[in-house]
């Protein structure tokens, strides 16, 4: 049992450098988060390249709610609730496909890929145009697309997607700029990992520069790429609060210092000559070199999209202590040698036999067990509080291993929870 009363106010649970353990374990808090965060703020759903052709669709989710992302025959993208308006059956369970309509398997109601109810057998009681109009599939209230990344919000009103992304927009720009064609292709499919842990443990960990040297030491030694040094005490990399709960592990200062382009696992330029030539042709030699040295971002877009250089992770809460991570490899449209590398590295590091994600997942589940203890009952996030500073853009930054991102996430979380009260 919690010794802090959640109804007494969020300031009792969230202080600037510590949070109460019940935030990870209390089912009532989880339910409040669904309403105040997951069904209100902008949530990443999918990428336009997953539905490239008219009538393509892909099954997605916003928190526990099932959603279908469709492209209609005119080419417009829709986010529909995957829930029959009759008695709530899933109208679509194929993970992806091409169809202009979905037929509910329970009583045969049929809906178009824009959500319109097309027909139903034995219609007595449901007849009339009015009924038909009202019984179309539910829709996610707002849809926003930035650089092909599709976000949905269940709130009719609120900040625009651009306002929500704020400074973190630059991370998506940077990712896309590394594609010689200027386009991404995120249709390789998603690996799914379920963990018995609260979703916020994952959000906090994605830009945690404190853990890699410990949790990932074995993969760092196998990779022999020097990547572990990025998270050493001497590292010039930065942790950053990008605003609105978005956070960053900025490795660019370190890459620039060592002049090492593409500092990721196995994707150095000598191994991807065709890609480098393509990028140089598209951007010019100088700009291509700068892009390669800076590399791809390591940014967590609150609440659910983590750009991890060559992979994307999507966090989906299922219950207070159950979360799914969906992972795919970044692929640049028309850059086969680089794509092959990024796919191989993704499968090798976060696939079924990969160490990287398995190591993090073990930590999440251990945290989840530990956090039930009620003495001590607080999780502390103090690292680097004394050296937090503003960068030239006015963002709070700290050293690579500081807990600047975690404090930033909780500040934003508290604002959302208080605003929704
Ligand atoms: Fe879908 Fe009855 S639940 S047709
Ligand atoms: Fe990790």
UniProtKB/TrEMBL annotation:
It is an enzyme of class 6 (ligase). GO terms for molecular function: 2 iron, 2 sulfur cluster binding; dioxygenase activity; iron ion binding; ligase activity; monooxygenase activity; oxidoreductase activity, acting on paired donors, with incorporation or reduction of molecular oxygen. Residues 42-140 form the Rieske domain. The keyword Iron applies. Its EC number is 6.2.1.-. InterPro entries: ARHD_Rieske_2Fe_2S (IPR015881), Rieske_2Fe-2S (IPR017941), Rieske_2Fe-2S_sf (IPR036922), Ring_hydroxy_dOase_asu_C_dom (IPR015879), Rng_hydr_dOase-A (IPR001663). Keywords: 2Fe-2S, Dioxygenase, Iron, Iron-sulfur, Ligase, Metal-binding, NAD, Oxidoreductase. Belongs to the bacterial ring-hydroxylating dioxygenase alpha subunit family. This is Fatty-acyl-CoA synthase. The lineage of its organism: Bacteria, Bacillati, Actinomycetota, Thermoleophilia, Solirubrobacterales.
């Amino acid at each position: 049992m919690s010794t802090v009363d959640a109804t007494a106010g969020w300031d009792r649970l969230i202080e600037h450098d510590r949070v109460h353990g019940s935030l990870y374990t209390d089912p009532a808090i989880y339910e409040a988060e669904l309403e105040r965060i997951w069904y209100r703020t902008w949530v990443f759903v999918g990428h336009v390249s997953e539905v490239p052709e008219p009538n393509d669709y892909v099954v997605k989710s916003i928190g526990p709610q099932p959603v279908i992302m469709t492209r209609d025959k005119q080419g417009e993208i829709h986010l529909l609730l995957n829930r029959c308006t009759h008695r709530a059956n899933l109208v679509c369970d194929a993970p992806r496909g091409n169809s202009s309509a979905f037929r509910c398997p329970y009583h045969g109601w049929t809906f178009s890929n824009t959500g319109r109810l097309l027909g139903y057998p034995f219609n007595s009681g449901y007849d009339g145009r009015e009924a038909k109009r009202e019984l179309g599939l539910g829709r996610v209230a707002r849809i926003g697309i930035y650089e092909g990344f599709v976000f949905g919000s269940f709130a009719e009103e609120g900040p625009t997607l651009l306002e929500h992304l704020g400074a973190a927009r630059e991370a998506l720009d940077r990712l896309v700029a590394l594609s010689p064609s200027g386009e991404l292709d995120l249709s390789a499919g998603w690996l799914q990992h379920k963990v018995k842990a609260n979703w916020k443990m994952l959000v906090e960990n994605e830009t945690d520069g404190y853990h890699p040297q410990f949790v990932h030491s074995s993969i760092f030694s196998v990779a022999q790429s020097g990547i572990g040094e990025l998270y050493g005490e001497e590292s010039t990399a930065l942790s950053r609060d990008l605003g609105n709960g978005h956070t960053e592990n900025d490795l660019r200062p370190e890459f620039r210092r060592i002049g090492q382009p593409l500092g990721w696992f196995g994707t150095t330029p000598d191994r991807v000559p065709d890609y480098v030539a393509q990028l140089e042709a598209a951007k010019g030699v100088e700009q291509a070199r700068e892009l390669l040295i800076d590399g791809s971002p390591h940014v967590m877009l609150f609440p659910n999209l983590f750009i991890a250089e060559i992979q994307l992770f999507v966090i989906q809460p299922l219950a207070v202590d159950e979360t799914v991570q969906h992972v795919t490899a970044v692929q640049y449209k028309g850059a086969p040698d680089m794509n092959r590398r990024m796919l191989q590295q993704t499968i090798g590091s976060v696939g079924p036999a990969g160490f990287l994600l398995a190591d993090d997942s073990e930590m999440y589940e251990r945290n989840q067990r530990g956090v039930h203890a009620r003495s001590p009952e607080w999780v502390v996030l103090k690292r680097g509080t004394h050296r937090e500073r503003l960068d030239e853009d006015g963002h709070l930054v700290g050293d690579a291993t500081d807990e600047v991102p975690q404090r930033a996430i909780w500040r934003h979380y508290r604002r959302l929870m208080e605003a929704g009260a």
